[in-house]
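Researcher: I'd like a candidate sequence for this fold, 130 residues long. If you have to choose between options at a position, lean toward the conservative one.
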């Protein structure tokens, strides 16, 4: 009975742990936002990565899962000759696809989001810095 109680107490703690470590060379890989314009870069390929997003009946912390997926994509980029990765879509069931690019010293631009008219009584905001 005590062993079962101990296991049940440890599962939530383990779900918050990060098990993915950064590989050599991955620290230099940049992560571009999904809306960034990488047209000045050369596409080197696509990376599909996955991690466990559940431990038994418990969902792992979404931020930890996303962080591990990003780290795995960065780990794979150097093998493709890429120095930048960009998420292709949102993570789903612990899996995510990334595009890999070689940008060198190219400046990464951003696409302006489509303007949305403010609703009545709603404030309109604008970014002041990137």
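Model: Candidate sequence:
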């Amino acid at each position: 009975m005590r062993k079962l109680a101990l296991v049940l107490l440890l599962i939530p703690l383990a779900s918050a742990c990060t098990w993915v470590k950064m590989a050599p060379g991955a620290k230099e890989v940049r992560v571009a936002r999904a809306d960034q314009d990488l047209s000045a870069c050369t596409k080197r390929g696509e990376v599909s990565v996955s991690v466990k997003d559940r431990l038994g009946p418990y969902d792992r912390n979404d931020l930890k899962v996303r962080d591990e997926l990003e780290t795995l994509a960065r780990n794979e980029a150097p093998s493709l000759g890429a120095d930048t990765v960009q998420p292709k879509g949102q993570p789903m069931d612990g899996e995510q696809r990334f595009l890999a690019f070689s940008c060198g010293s190219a400046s990464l631009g951003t696409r302006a989001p489509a303007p949305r008219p403010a609703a009545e009584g709603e404030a309109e905001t604008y970014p002041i810095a990137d």
